[in-house]
Amino acid sequence: MPAEPPIEVPRSLAEAFAILAAAPHRPVAGGTDVLVQIAGELGPPPERVIDLWRLDELRGIGLEGDTLALGALTTYTEIRRSAVCLEHLPALVDAAATIGAAQIQNRGTLGGNIANASPAGDSLPVLLAMDAEIVVGGVRGEQTIPARDFWVAYRRTALQPDELVLRVRIPLVARREIRFRKVGTRRAQAISKVVMALAWRSSPGDGGWSDVRVALGSVAATPIRATATEAVLDGAAPTAETAERAAATLAAEIQPIDDVRSTADYRRVVAARVLHRLVRDAGGW
Amino acid sequence: MTIRTEPRRVARPLAPGREVTDALVVAPSQTTAGRARGVAPLRREGPEKLTGEAKYADDLVFPGAWYGATIRSTEAHARLLALDRDDGFDWSAVVLVTAADIPGDNVVSLISDDQPVLVPVGGEIQHHAEPLALLAAADRATLRAASHAIRPRTERLVPVFDPLASEHVFAHYEIGAGDVERGFAEAELVLEGTYRVGHQEQLYIENNAMIAVPRDDGGVTVHGSLQCPYYVHKALKRSLRLSDAQARVVQAETGGGFGGKEEYPSILAIHAALLARRCGRRVRMIYDRHEDIAATTKRHPAVVTHRTGIRRDGTLVAQDIDVVMDGGAYCTLTPVVLSRGALHAGGPYRCPNVRIRARATRTNTPPNGAFRGFGAPQTQFAAETHLNRVAETLDLSPLEIRRRNVYRPGDQTPTGQRLRESVAGEEVLERAAEAAEFERLRERTRRARVARGAAGPGATPLATAHDRTATGIGLALAWHGAGFTGSGEVKLASVVSLELTPAGAIRILTASTEMGQGTKTIFPQLVADALGVPYEAVEIAPQDTAFVPDSGPTVASRTAMVVGGLLLQAAARLRGRVEEATGGAFAETYPAWAAVNGPVRIDQRFEPYPGVHFDDETYRGDAYPAYGWAACVATVEVDLDTGEVSVLDVVAADDVGRVIHPVLAEGQVEGGTLQAVGYATIEEMKLEDGRYLNDRLATYLIPTALDAPRITSILVEAPFSGAPHGAKGVGELPMDVGAPAVVAAIHDAVGVWIHDLPATPERILAALGVTARPEEPGREGTAPAVRAATDAADTAREVREPIRAGTDPRPEARTDPLPLRGPQPEGEPDWPSEDDR
Fold first, then answer.
1. A56-171, what's its fold?
2. What is the value of ipTM here, to two decimals?
3. How many CB pairs under 8 A join A and B?
4. Do B703 and A186 touch (CB under 8 A)?
5. pLDDT tens for each residue of B338-355
6. Which residues on B lie below 8 Å from A100 (Cβ)?
7. Could you tell me the residue range of the domain that residue B281 belongs to?
8. How confident is the model at residue A36 (pLDDT cuts 50, 70, 90)?
9. Neighbours of B337 (CB within 10 A)
10. Which fold has domain A176-283?
């Protein structure tokens, strides 16, 4: 029987901030990561836990001008059912649909995926590709951290111990396209071997791409952006030559490892091929 | 869909010089045809399972029971020097059992006496997760604290992980017919190949579980999840030095077994019983999934090498087959698994010159054991994949090469067994091919390959081709010996009983267990049918050694065939006795007769099937009384970018002798097919230092509902005359054919043969020359950076060598270099194996 750490259950965000200011606590939202770690005795159990589930201030999906804001406690099921997400962020809906089973999607949250900081977190490449900002806060106030600065090392984030993820802000950009592709061991309930989000804006004139984002999971210690590959695609049109150069650049840019799910070589090659396919599909050749 | 086979003329041209014969000898009308059989009554235990009323071991309430835990080794090979106990812990709150506390033999009784119940101090630890000591406590928190307060002190020994290098041989067999060298001399073509398969986990839905209750007579009663009550009974008696009556084994509702609860419950029952005896209380030992996967038995990994001589018309003339299985650290059932694997190694094909050499060796990995198919899926994956490669090299259809070689009545097997009846390989082959439209779809996939080639530049390692996916279709055929191998059934001498009580209850007494496959439904069906009474009129007694006789283990697809046959014989005797006395029909007269003459109990013991003889010493004779036959056509879609495989459709034709319950029989085919799809595509245990790395459900993945193909099951009936009802068993058949059919379909789609199971995307892209080759299945990791993955332990590492340039994966190209050879002159064969890497 695993250890049961003491749990605080704040009723308001202010109360939660005060608890965190007094002592470090492991935040739990849906519990889909933390409970597995405790029950499976995967590493030392947290000393203290703070249950965020009742903090309704952290729920909700809404438009704020040109920005879409998602509360940290937004579940994957809510993302899948959200008309706003379906219209503006179909890639995020795609990602949410691949995470776990229905039960996990009912409990698992976007904020949890962000704070858990798994390199295989399936929503994270989408956030990176969409230039999302992560709003964090605590007794010392709120601050906004760009997604690309958030995951600093293997399972480590820019969050301070007294801070929580509050919401995610995603700028809605005209003519931006985004694609999502996950490669896993089976068709559902699989941790990814390679996961990729690709975003770009097309010039209405020549069809050239700008603001290209190539974001990946499961190929590095953190979710990453492949900036050298982005540079190859930026300003180019989605031709066969571009796709080949981008795929080759990506294969050289990432440094995946062998693990229990796949091999480094497979990940590197498949990441390149998935990118090649996405560019090919966009180019229609 | 059930098809009754009829004796009929075979219109197709057969191999040159062969007579056209009747396909079947026994006509369906010669065996029983009754009211209950062929309809589908509700499962006996179904409503309780559906409503949650069914009591699995962990649902059983035993007030005051303590919790038990196992202290396990964390090394693959070591000497146990001591069990150091933390002095700061209050040891009065727990009981500790070590090897010194075992009253009887420190042996898990099975075939060989090599496996200890607990490793003694001074003894050798032979595998990771081996039991060293046992603990029990009143609550789980104390138990957990105690298990952290005991530390094995060990001296590391050199482990052996390679079954090919291991010098400790558990069993070896050589089976031969004709003269292999002469056969190769006559061959016009010779093809070689090596095939490897890894561990597979049974992944029953309920983990192993056992609860021990001390008895007033000094003995113990265990309640648990198990397949074979009398195996557990025997093991308990020996290790705890108990009499027959002092050891009692009761099967709780059991959530699946697949062979995984054939031998393992014995050691778990002994553990629970030792703790119960030590603390004088009931003790529960319920494994969680992690412990169950880490410690319990798996399907044996195997390396199978084929060298086959063929004529240009596709006729097999020589088969030289070498099988090596990895037994793990202890013998368990390995000799029997190997035996079945060896006997099936040639596949269901006539060949005049055969040599099959098989051995199983010891490695310092957890012991491997029984799993649906029992050695045959491993060797028949190799046989079928190899035959498909033979067909490809001859430019013959996979269907046609099988038509030319499949066993027909009168043919002889490598053990010299003449197949007299119930030979339905051709039948299942034609039924499956016809229902799946095999040749038409194969032509379509061929055209698609051509079109893909014309669509533009092909893929390169880092670039995709025009088409993202390719579809392929594949075929496999297998046989499966019905019941125990060789003289197994004769030695078992199983007994069943049928009771008629004064109150008019008709009760079945057998040790055959229900684990989801339908024992508790088909037995009453068979007996009701034989007595002419309604299905509901027949009861079945609980599987409890205090009540039921030893009707043998519930394994080897023998339950319907052997035990069901005994029940029919017992029922015929009971019916005869009542009808002789009353002069009326049993159904009308038995209540009144039983009230006066009851209780009556009929005991029926197994008698050898007439004309079936096997010599265990020479491996000659009738290896099985009859064979079941299975064919499978699989359609897959391969993602050409990633190598991901979707199995879209499976048509399975299985000859089960006689269908007793069509819904349950189809359920067996569907479940077995899905298990085979998992074996074929994704299920793989990865090892490091003799430890399974993916020993959790998050990392050992099996197909989900979304991964399941559409399955059409065709049940063919070619009855076996030795069993009163003609049944031959169904459970294992689909396991033999699924994997080779899927691998053949992958080849049809992308043009490469995958020699190693599972055919993962990593192996497919490697075979296409796109990526480096991953590790071999079932073997120690050779890659440097394999590590435990609890979630996504992807940390950046040093840049490894750049991507090796591969070959263009042209679907039309054959990937085996020089697979085809003429007959070789005398002396050293000089061809390289295409498996040199």
1. 3.30.465
2. 0.96
3. 147
4. yes
5. 999 999 999 999 999 999
6. none
7. 62-159+203-295
8. confident
9. 29
10. Enolase-like; domain 1 (3.30.390)
